[in-house]
Q: What sequence folds into this?
């Protein structure tokens, strides 16, 4: 049973870079596809990015150019970097495993609240 | 991108009621649709995928139907643990989610 746990700073200053990691237990990051999804009262649930087990990535066009997703097989983690953040990036950030390689998400991590503020 | 809408935005119901939630996609997505349940402070949980396939461990009172642009999630007999918010999601190359439907106590 794969379990996911997000970690990172809960407060990021405007224009800086948001960096999050998702620790994967119960399975290997090399065996599955992974996504980051965020949730805010203003925008609801918003898919951010995905990485498959060959390292191929895909990004939400609205965030492309600011976001990078990657996997680290040595630590069994999935990472997210979002540059040049603004208050609009304030949200709960979830990592999620893809179900059977399709764009269905199961399970999700509990999520981490990231606030962008000076 | 494909826009997802849901109706109603909220529904008040009682234990034992049949509840139906509708989801509409702005373009044909075949059966590339999922339904999730989310309780306060918790992560979303996958209930239905491929429009009508029940995820392992999910009670059979949950069912999904539809194809193309119109989809439905039905809870046949509402249980106390089913009071939550439900989201639909289209599973194309660029996934998007509906705004959610909150099921609360009448």
A:
């Amino acid at each position: 049973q794969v379990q996911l746990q997000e970690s990172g700073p809960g407060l990021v200053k405007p224009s800086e870079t948001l960096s999050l990691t998702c620790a994967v237990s119960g399975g290997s990051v090399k065996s599955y596809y992974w996504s980051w999804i965020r949730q805010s009262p203003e925008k609801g649930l918003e898919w951010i990015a995905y990485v498959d087990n060959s390292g191929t990535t895909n990004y939400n066009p609205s965030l492309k150019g600011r976001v990078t997703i990657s996997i680290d097989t040595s630590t069994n983690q999935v990472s997210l970097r979002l540059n040049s953040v603004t208050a609009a990036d304030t949200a709960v950030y979830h990592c999620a495993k893809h179900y059977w390689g399709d764009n269905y998400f199961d399970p999700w991590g509990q999520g981490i609240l990231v606030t962008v503020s000076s | 991108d494909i826009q997802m809408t849901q109706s109603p935005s909220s529904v008040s119901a009682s234990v034992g009621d049949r509840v139906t939630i509708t989801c509409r996609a702005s373009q044909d997505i075949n059966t590339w649709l999922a339904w999730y349940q989310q309780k306060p402070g918790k992560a979303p949980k996958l209930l239905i995928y491929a429009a009508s396939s029940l995820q392992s461990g999910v009670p059979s009172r949950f069912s999904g139907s539809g194809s193309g642009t119109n989809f439905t999630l039905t809870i046949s007999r509402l249980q106390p643990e089913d009071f939550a918010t439900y989201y639909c999601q289209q599973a194309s190359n660029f996934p998007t989610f509906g705004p959610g439907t909150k099921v609360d106590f009448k």
